[in-house]
Amino acid sequence: MNALASLNDLDPQYPLPRIYDFLAQPENSEMLDYVFRDPFGCHVFPGDIPRYPLANFFADMEKDIRAAKHIHLWAYIPTCRYRCHFCQYPTVILNPAAPSSQQVFTDVVDLNIKEAQMWLERIPSLAHAEVGEFNIFGGTPSLLPEAELRRLMAFYRQHFNFSQATLRFEGEPGSLGKPYLRVLKELGFSKISFGAQSFDDRIITACGRQHSAAECVETINNARDIGLEWVSVDLIYGMLGQSVSDVQADMEKALQLALSHIVCTKLHMEEFMKTRTGVSGDRASLWQKKGLIDINNMSFPGLGKQYQMRELVEKYLNPGYVEHPTMYFHQQHRPAEKWKAIITDLDQQYPEVAIGMGGSSKCTRSEAINITNFKSYKEALNNDCLPIEESRGISPHLREVNAFKMALSTLIPVDDAVFRQRFGGKSFMDNPSIKQTLEKMARKNLLTVKEGLVTLTPNGVTLVEAIINTQFDITGASEA
Ligand SMILES: C[S@@+](CC[C@H](N)C(=O)[O-])C[C@H]1O[C@@H](n2cnc3c(N)ncnc32)[C@H](O)[C@@H]1O
Ligand code: SF4
Q1: Mind listing the pLDDT tens digit for each residue in 186-206?
Q2: What does DSSP assign to residue 27?
Q3: What distance in Å separates the CA atoms of residue 364 and residue 459, rounded to the nearest whole number?
Q4: Is residue 288 part of a domain?
């Protein structure tokens, strides 16, 4: 199916999506092609100087961490008990109950601690920097046996400055029972997050997951019972067998559950490694390998239906929720995700340090991505090498463009006064690439520029990923 045919795959029971006319116009084919290929590109802003020396990267991190109010620190635990059909994340699949798995968990924690010690040696300010939020991401960290989780947390608490940190933990509903949630609370976690993907068992099963919608609801209720009010649930739209009305049912359920935070992502099929996500992709997902083919009389909804789904998400979650950044919704009376704000809000954009397989760490001047393969990751650490696969620098031109793009991704109006504070009085309009893009996007009614404030229009909000990834000249050629 080509992009236009996919856009024309619509559910007649629902209104034509607002974005349809814009994407159907031939002059907007670049954006249509982008959203059709559908990479996961909005939450990473890669550097432009390849093979950046690691010594320079650590010096940049040291400098930025010293100047930062706080940082985002995270540990990545790659273990999972099955592999979902959409997932490309670096995972180690195991049966958590098998005796042989206990050694894997011990290894994962040992390796993570060893890597963290190496980061602490190379970046001296890291030990004192105020951690704004500490996340344990996965994979499925909730598979870690309690003793291993306690060992990991004891290390982090002892070696990093958690005096002002909020602690957030990612799990999977089938392994986040009440006793485990109690341990998390006792260890100081106040936020949990997990993937439900859908509240429909048929859809959950079709994407290869081995938990039920009832377990998701039970996890939410259990978390609340023990005083964990901050529960963020991941939902995906565009999956195998999913209809527009299925997404409507998911939204009704989400509202009924009064979730504090919801992440609603369009199914991403493009290879993660091409654009990279926060955690770099490892290998193709099952759905990528097979292509978008019908399975058991189920098919994948096209782009038109996906935008009908996205409109339903907006309809249900506005006005009770605020989207900040794109795809991340929080209840209006609660704050946005702290870690996201730390790394993307224009008045922050502080460093991020990621410890574990596939993690990516960055500051304003450079970034480094870890190895995504478990065997190679282990080998590197066993040879006393930091498991960094790639490091890139960020040129002065790109620093401004990236700062602007990150700010745009938050969906908060981008304020030139804040930009000037960041860049020695320079306006974003002084950067020819940003200026050109803003003028073009304003002509297309995707944003407005008024009194130093850039505000996305509703169509701009829907297409923010495409704007960020197709409309900026990142080479600085337009400066010449
Ligand atoms: C890496 S998972 C970690 C959470 C936990 N392992 C779980 O699945 O419950 C984080 C989230 O990324 C999202 N995700 C992963 N692959 C995706 C894809 N191809 N397209 C859209 N979202 C995806 C899913 O919603 C998933 O819950
Ligand atoms: S989505 Fe979560 S549970 Fe599924 S394979 Fe990926 S990391 Fe593991």
Answers
A1: 999 999 999 999 999 999 999
A2: G
A3: 29
A4: yes
